[in-house]
Design brief:
Layout (H helix, E strand, L loop, with lengths): L4 H20 L4 E2 L4 H14 L12 E2 L2 E2 L7 H10 L16 H16 L3 H30 L4 E3 H5 L4 H9 L6 H9 L8 E3 L3 E5 L3 E6 L7 E4 L5 E2 L5 E6 L13 E5 L7 E5 L5 E2 L8 E2 H7 L4 H5 L2 E5 L2 E5 L3 E2 L12 E6 L7
Parallel strand pairs: 1-3
Antiparallel strand pairs: 2-3, 4-7, 5-6, 6-7, 8-12, 9-10, 10-18, 11-18, 12-15, 13-14, 15-16, 16-17
Helix pairs in contact: 2-4, 2-5, 7-8
Length: 352
């Protein structure tokens, strides 16, 4: 990972603390962070760029980590050590200004103390106040997010009703790994053309006309699923009921895009359910000529998200059905049909 030595050491340290808690059955680990450490953290976050959270300083409690000395300055702790003749260990790297935190401690804070001798205490009071403001802010954000992002879609019209839509968009997207520059670009694209895509390390945002869809990158990878000849159902990635109809005398083919009825003898098993691929084509039911799936999607005004969420049922890599939409004419039931393969979707699929 591309992280600093400081951050890598911090991760190793806290992983070790967690391991100790698990092994020894310890409920809490007390860390000796003090008021000066918190002031350094606030300034470091401010320099790097941060929201309200970064200005609240070091949290007194985070899971099983507690920090009971945040109310004390380094000077107060040193006075106590001296008065009680206590031994202590000081990290030898604390005096090296090559590290950003040390530069703040050794160079920037002393300059600030020339302006305000109690600047560390002032920062601590500000951080405490902002931590309370953050609680109010987070509560409001949760309510607004429920309205603006009911699922994995950010509704553009609802977002634009907000008092500060760009700020809310930042709070919604930052947890997905999008940085501030990306979020600014996304906000500026709200009224632009559809189809723009933005990536964080783990998520993808797709801008549609009326919404923005946020998906985990691993969830949009291509997969395929086999349906064997004796299968009666498929439970994943979509729920399908599969039935062979041998008595055709009183059978009526349902007129529903969610049900496929084809000549069972015209397909070969296993059938394969997969995502569509560039170059896929079929002969739409009721037609004679072949049509590329990409053209079918365009003609029926599929959005990019609709196309990516579409499943294709194939037999020997021939398209049998654009699931929930249209079957292929080559597998239709006709006067020579002796057996029907009926496949029904028993979950909702958006139908164009």
């Amino acid at each position: 990972e591309h992280i600093s030595i400081e951050m890598a050491a911090r991760q190793l340290r806290y992983n070790w603390f967690e391991e100790l808690c698990n092994v020894l059955g310890i409920h809490h680990v007390a860390i000796a962070h003090h008021q000066d450490d918190s002031a350094e953290t606030v300034l470091l976050n401010l320099i790097r760029g941060t929201g309200i959270k970064g200005l609240t300083g070091i949290s007194p409690k985070n899971g099983n980590i507690i920090r009971p000395m945040l109310c004390l300055s380094k000077t107060e702790i040193n006075q106590y050590i001296e008065e009680h003749s206590l031994n202590y260990v000081d990290d030898s790297t604390n005096g090296e200004t090559v590290y950003q935190r040390n530069k703040i401690r050794l160079e920037i804070l002393p300059l600030m103390e020339q302006i305000n001798p109690s600047v560390k205490n002032t920062i601590a009071r500000m951080s405490y106040h902002l931590s309370q403001v953050e609680n109010i802010y987070e509560s409001f954000i949760r309510l607004e997010k429920t309205r603006v992002m009911p699922d994995n879609r950010i509704l553009i019209a609802e977002l634009e009703k907000c008092l500060e839509p760009e700020a809310l968009l930042f709070e919604i997207l930052a947890p997905y790994g999008f940085n501030s520059d990306q979020i600014t670009q996304i906000y500026r694209s709200l009224n632009g053309i559809s189809g723009k895509i933005f990536f964080s390390p783990t998520y993808r945002l797709l801008k549609n006309r009326d919404d923005m869809v946020v998906d985990k990158i691993s969830a949009i990878c291509d997969d395929s699923y086999s349906i064997q000849e004796d299968a009666t159902r498929l439970d994943f990635p979509i729920h399908l009921n599969i039935e062979s109809i041998n008595n055709l005398e009183n059978f009526t083919i349902p007129k529903s895009p969610h049900t496929l009825c084809i000549d069972r003898d015209k397909v070969s098993f296993p059938l394969v359910l997969r995502r569509w691929e560039k170059g896929d084509w079929f002969i739409p039911f009721g037609m004679d000529g072949r049509k590329k799936l990409s053209d079918y999607f365009s003609d029926n005004k599929f959005s990019i998200a609709d196309k990516e969420s579409s499943w294709i049922l194939t037999s020997e890599d021939k398209v049998v059905w654009i699931v929930g939409h249209r079957p292929d004419n080559r597998f239709k039931v006709d006067t020579c049909t002796r057996k029907i393969l009926k496949i029904s979707i028993n979950q909702h699929i958006n139908n164009k």
